[in-house]
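Action item from last meeting closed. Structure (188 res):
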């Protein structure tokens, strides 16, 4: 693995631990020599993860739609800021640039992004590892919903397991960085 896409909120959340952890995630990526690919913003957890990676001497590629440059305050201090036409192009470019994916706390956009790349694993479009940092139990209900989908017969267990949940950033990044491509889960 050479790069990791991080999906996270453009808000910092109420608890300072979210921002602190996002900054730490950026530093951990830099320490491991992993390039950060993220949504290009300079605010919230997005800005914190980029700042952490830059602080650690890492490479940061931000991908932001032009219409969000002002709203999310595009991070002009990153190694490479790519301004794209729309959200579809942003997500496609981030997926192309990344060797794996990690969701930190965020809102519906963050959730949509990690669900989409997992769906692409199910459909056999890629086999890149996908992780969810369950900081402070933030994603407990989401994990419960995935289990409910499985229990009710709407999702196979092997698809639920594509989501690698972890509550400690360093351990989860290590797991993602050492993961083999997952081609065993291809939709059937």
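Sequence:
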């Amino acid at each position: 693995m050479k790069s990791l896409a991080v999906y996270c909120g453009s808000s910092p959340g109420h608890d300072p631990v979210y921002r602190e952890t996002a900054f730490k995630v950026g530093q951990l990526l830099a320490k491991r020599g992993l390039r950060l690919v993220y949504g290009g913003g300079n605010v919230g957890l997005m800005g914190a993860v980029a700042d952490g990676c830059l602080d650690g001497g890492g490479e940061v590629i931000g991908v932001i739609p032009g219409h969000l440059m002002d709203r999310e305050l595009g991070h002009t201090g990153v190694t490479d800021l790519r301004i794209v036409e729309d959200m579809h192009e942003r997500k496609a470019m981030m997926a192309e640039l990344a060797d794996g994916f990690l969701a930190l706390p965020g809102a519906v956009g963050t959730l949509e992004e990690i669900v989409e790349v997992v769906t692409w694993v199910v459909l056999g479009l890629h086999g890149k590892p996908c992780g969810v940092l369950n900081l402070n139990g933030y994603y407990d209900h989401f994990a419960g919903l995935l289990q409910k989908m499985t229990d009710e017969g709407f999702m196979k267990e092997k698809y639920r397991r594509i989501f690698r949940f972890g509550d400690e950033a360093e351990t989860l990044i290590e797991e993602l960085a050492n993961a083999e491509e997952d081609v065993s889960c291809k939709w059937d």
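Note appended to the action item: The chain has a mean pLDDT of 94.
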